[in-house]
């Protein structure tokens, strides 16, 4: 089966097989391009009548990509149903999975009243704990249908080159398998956009990584084994979705607009984002905006404003009732780390600098689960000086401007809460 793969791809496959060995094939979902289940009856009813409709795209960088399957499929929907004014809700954030998506869902998707939500997290969730994927994905489903039971949902799966071996054997990776359990329970259709990609690779007609001009006569999927080129990998993704939509449109077994009992009672249905401006903070914190601060300007598409502290020892406090608290914030060259004290216990350190921090990006962290009840969490700007040069060296990056990396700044954008913030 593997004889036509390139040598470089074979190496990738072998590397991926070690992690896949942990997942026995009898526990994995059978690979299938489209599973109809309850279909998308309410969406099709609207667009066939020429009514306006909104399609939300919730996912990671593969969905966020300019010119990718999100924009290509939106254009196709608009052409396919020209009497219906179809708009998109672009709610994809690179490098994040369902564990952030479930918190930002209300503000970034549901408040805009979607008719159809595509959920794409199989790549960024792969490698995570099975229960973590399940409680976040079920929380997404239940939030959507609590807001409007007639909003249709479709799970969308993409791939990386390291996922190809298990797909070639006819099985989904673990992340998609977990999502299929949620989809089965709630009768949510699912579409894998990458099965044809794997088939073409097996035939020797596609290579997963490279520059298009370097492989004459073959499709080059991506530059990095993950993020497809718009004209090749994303085009194959869009074609797969179009095939699936054709099947879903003809389906007659439409789901009922009612919410079933949860599959996981501890699911994250109550997850929400709350502005960091709700915290109680020391005097050294300042509110910055895209018009007043260069970092805020870089991340204007993520945050309308941020709290920023530059001095070690500055502190903010959150009182909340619930089980989970986290922070949606910033990582980058001039960032330090948080020292977090949970209910007066020993502090935990959360560095806001990693080997990718040659630029500023949004990021997040979630504190360990707590017993349901009232809790007090203190966040301090830590005084430790991180060895940023050594951290960057892990990816063969070097510091060219030491002044850029000298600060120990901390930022706060949104609180991630399962429960209720009690600060006034």
Structure description:
By secondary structure, the chain is of the alpha/beta class. The chain has two domains: 7-250, Rossmann fold (3-Layer(aba) Sandwich), CATH 3.40.50.1110; 271-421, Jelly Rolls, CATH 2.60.120. Helix content is 31%, strand content 25%. The chain has 14 helices and 19 strands. It has helices at 7-20, 41-48, 61-64, 69-80, 98-108, 122-125, 130-147, 164-168, 174-186, 195-202, 233-250, 294-298, 388-393, 402-405, and strands at residues 34-35, 53-59, 86-92, 116-120, 152-157, 190-192, 206-209, 219-222, 271-275, 280-281, 286-288, 306-309, 315-331, 337-342, 348-351, 361-366, 373-381, 410-412, 414-421. The strands form four sheets. Strands 9, 10, 13, 14, 15, 16, 17 and 19 form an eight-stranded antiparallel sheet that branches. A six-stranded mixed sheet has the order 1-6-5-4-2-3, sandwiched between helices. The protein has a three-stranded antiparallel sheet with strand order 11-12-18, with no helix packed on it. The radius of gyration is 22 Å and the shape is globular.
Keywords:
6-stranded mixed beta sheet; alpha/beta; Rossmann fold; 8-stranded antiparallel beta sheet; Jelly Rolls; 2 domains; 424 residues; disordered N terminus; 19 strands; 31% helix
Summarize the structure.
The protein is of the alpha/beta class and 424 residues long.
Helix content: 25-40%
- Please identify the top-level CATH class of the largest domain: Alpha Beta
How many runs of DSSP E, i.e. beta strands?
A: 19
Strand-residue fraction? 15-25%
Mean residue pLDDT = 93
Q: Which secondary-structure class do the elements indicate?
A: alpha/beta
CATH architecture designation of the largest domain? 3-Layer(aba) Sandwich
The CATH superfamily of the largest domain is known as SGNH hydrolase
Q: Roughly how many Å apart are the termini?
A: 62 Å
Give unreliable regions as ranges. Answer: 1-23
Large-scale geometry: globular
Q: Which radius of gyration do the C-alpha atoms yield?
A: 22 Å
Main sheet, how many strands, which sense, barrel? Answer: 8 strands, antiparallel
């Amino acid at each position: 089966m593997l004889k036509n793969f390139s040598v470089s791809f074979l190496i990738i496959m072998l590397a991926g097989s070690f992690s896949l060995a942990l997942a026995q094939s009898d526990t994995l979902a059978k690979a299938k391009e489209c599973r109809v289940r309850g279909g998308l009856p309410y969406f099709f009813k609207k667009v066939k009548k020429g009514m306006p409709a909104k399609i939300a795209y919730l996912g990671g960088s593969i969905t966020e990509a300019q010119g990718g399957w999100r924009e290509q499929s939106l254009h196709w929907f608009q052409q396919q149903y020209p009497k219906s004014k179809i708009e998109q809700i672009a709610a994809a954030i690179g490098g994040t999975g369902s564990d952030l998506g479930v918190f930002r869902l209300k503000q970034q998707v549901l408040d805009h009243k979607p008719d159809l939500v595509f959920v794409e997290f199989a790549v960024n969730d792969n490698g995570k704990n099975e229960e973590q994927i399940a409680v976040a994905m079920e929380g997404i489903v239940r939030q959507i249908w609590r807001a409007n039971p007639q909003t249709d949902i479709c799970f969308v799966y993409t791939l990386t080159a390291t996922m190809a071996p298990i797909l070639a054997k006819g099985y989904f990776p673990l992340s998609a398998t977990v999502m299929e359990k949620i989809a089965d329970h709630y009768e949510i259709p699912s579409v894998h956009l990458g099965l044809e990609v794997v088939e073409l690779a097996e035939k020797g007609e596609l290579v997963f990584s490279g520059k298009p001009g370097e492989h004459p006569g073959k499709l080059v999927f991506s530059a990095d084994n993950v993020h497809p080129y718009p004209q090749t990998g994303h085009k194959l993704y869009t074609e797969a979705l179009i095939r699936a939509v054709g099947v879903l449109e003809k389906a007659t077994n439409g789901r009922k607009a009612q919410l079933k009992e949860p599959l996981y009672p501890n699911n994250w249905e109550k997850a929400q984002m709350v502005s960091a401006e709700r915290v109680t903070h020391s005097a050294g914190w300042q509110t910055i905006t895209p018009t007043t601060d260069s970092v805020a300007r870089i991340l204007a598409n993520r945050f309308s404003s941020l709290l920023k502290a530059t001095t070690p020892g500055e502190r903010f406090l959150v009182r909340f009732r619930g089980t989970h608290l986290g922070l949606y914030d910033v990582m980058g060259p001039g960032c330090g780390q948080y020292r977090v004290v949970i209910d007066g216990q020993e502090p935990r350190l959360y560095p806001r600098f990693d080997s990718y921090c040659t630029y500023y990006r949004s990021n997040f962290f979630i504190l360990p689960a707590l017993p349901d009840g009232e809790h007090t969490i203190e966040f301090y700007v830590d005084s430790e000086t991180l060895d940023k040069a050594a951290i960057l060296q892990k990816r063969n990056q070097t510091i060219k401007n030491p002044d850029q990396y000298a600060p120990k700044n901390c930022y706060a954008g949104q609180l991630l809460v399962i429960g209720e913030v009690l600060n006034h």
